[in-house]
Amino acid sequence: MSRPPDPERLGEFDIIARFFAPLATDPVSLGLTDDAALLHAESRDDLIVTTDTVIESVHFLERDPPETVGHKALAVNLSDLAAKGAEPLGYLLALSLPDQGKQSSTAWLEGLASGLKQLQEQAGTALIGGDTTATPGPLTLTITAIGRLPKGQAVLRSRAKAGDRLYISGTIGDAALGLRLLQDHDLAARWGLSEAEAEHLVDRYRRPQPRTHLAPILRHHAHGAIDVSDGLAGDLDKLCIASGLRARVQAGDVPLSVAAAKACEAEPGLLPMLLTGGDDYEILAAIPADRARGFAIDAERAGLPVTEIGSLEPAPPAGSTFVDRSGAALNLPVRSFSHFV
User: Fold this and answer.
1) What is the CB neighbour count within 10 angstroms for residue 152?
2) What CATH number should be reported for the domain holding residue 177?
3) Are strands 127-135 and 45-55 parallel, antiparallel or unpaired?
4) pLDDT tens, 42-82?
5) What ranges make up the beta strands (E) of the chain?
6) Is 65 in the same domain as 169?
7) In total, how many domains does the chain have?
8) What tens digit of pLDDT does each residue of 186-219 get?
9) Spatial contact of 324 and 251, defined as CB atoms under 8 Å apart
């Protein structure tokens, strides 16, 4: 059956002018009227550049509201900047829209732009350029985010040191549980969750909150950091390998939300999934012991509580071990999400 014509079907430049030019509030974007943005470099700053792609049915579900798709696409990039201690400067959006389907409708695009707008205003950034194309494949959004920070103060995963204490922001595992709830609504009752608790988990999957306000605190206190995108265990392994260290983590100290704790109580076998499931977008930081208390206090004042979960030790072997209260190592055969397994 052929698709009926859309009376408001828009071309590339119509889409840019109607939905994305209003997001280009920084003059460096040139109002999205050119093929590039004009950045003014400042010698006292370093620039951090990161890019992430989100794809329908891989990073979000087809039925997810467009506002949450826009939010998540930008949030995952802002999270990378925050982990480096950088404040966002601007971002570019490459949008590949299916040439058939709801994503090319004006209502869906309005929702997408609204999600981007809300988060960019919250984070203090703006769209500065990009590209819009049609595709026969799934909806794909690629964002390249640019951040800035004082010269020489980037917080890299390769600079953690033996003796550092490991801190994690927020809570872990909510998004993995939220995805499972979207795939099987009966789980909420099985886990004994209230409607609000179930909604919390789903929202954590659809609307991750980049910890942008933690950036200056990381610059002041941290030796190294990484954002937890693919799973706590796997991303901690990446930090350890980059720094040539090993980590020991008390699994019982990993912070869980009330909803996640209830799910684990009802189904104890969930814990390994929470430690490896990904989509948390929290910040894992390596803090020198003599700065640990100050880091926790500053994070609390910024409204971003952090929890100590372990420490770093000399390697080999590089990597991390999660242990229970008795000191026995947990078996985590799958350490993180991977596109290629």
Assistant:
1) 6
2) 3.90.650.10
3) unpaired
4) 778 988 888 899 999 989 999 999 999 999 999 999 999 99
5) 45-55, 87-98, 127-135, 140-150, 165-169, 224-228, 245-250, 282-287, 306-314, 319-323
6) no
7) 2
8) 999 999 999 999 999 999 999 999 999 999 999 9
9) yes
